[in-house]
Amino acid sequence: MKTVFEHKPDFTFREFAIEKTVTIPARKLEEMLRHPMRNHEVIVENTGVMGVDRDDVYHCLLVTGEGRPDGLLVESEGSGYARYASYVPEATALRYPTLSKLNRELAEAVDTIIAEGVSLTTEGNWIVSFEELAGMTGLCVEGRPFLQEILGDMLCSRPEVADLTIEDGQFDVVYHLDFCPNCRKETGQEELPDKISMEEMHGYGYTWEGMLPLGKERALGLAEAGLEVFLLMPDGTERVAESRDEITGHDGLFGVERQAWKGCQEKIKSGQINVPVGTSGMLPSM
Q: Which among 27, 110, 150, 162 is least buried, having the fewest CB atoms inside 10 angstroms?
């Protein structure tokens, strides 16, 4: 990543208005950025549109480069060089203010979903409906799949988010438990069904926190006891094991859903079921 660092910077904010936008070849914009104090043809040709009025509003020229997202905001004060200038990483935000407004709304929606989810979830996931999101933030995504997809991509870029599903008019967000204070105490005391840790499962490539990892022998034992066992894939997907052969033939990790394991623990403690370490018999129909 790159940015501009100013020597003895002055971060005084000034009112400005864009009087004209000019797009020049990318190499010429690069030259302007490298040598702003030299005379440049595009500035010389547009000195008449620039100036500072009696209300201290800077009337500027916005210079962009072909194929580049950035640009340079210039007020030359009648000169041929960039006497006053501001680098703009996303020039389209200035050319199209509605995009800048939408970006702020989306960012605020992401922050709201993350803040509510990590603070309230006790299982690692949190569901927010489109209607609830509109009520919390004013952003309406109902019937706007493009906005739903953008918001989903922004959510998935956050370190707190492990997985996301958008369906049935809602965002179903799965969070990494390290970010969920109401999950830490529970998971710290939680008895996992096998010696394989959640961290090992995440490193394998499967990240949904609603699944607990198993090795092959434990998977066979739980399936023998009647639990639904899943074959976990390194791409983050899973499918139900339909037979013993599917379990013995799978070289990766296995899983059992957290809620199913909790119910199984209660039955084990009460003596209702016995879970063998492994089994050589046939699995029950699943």
A: 27
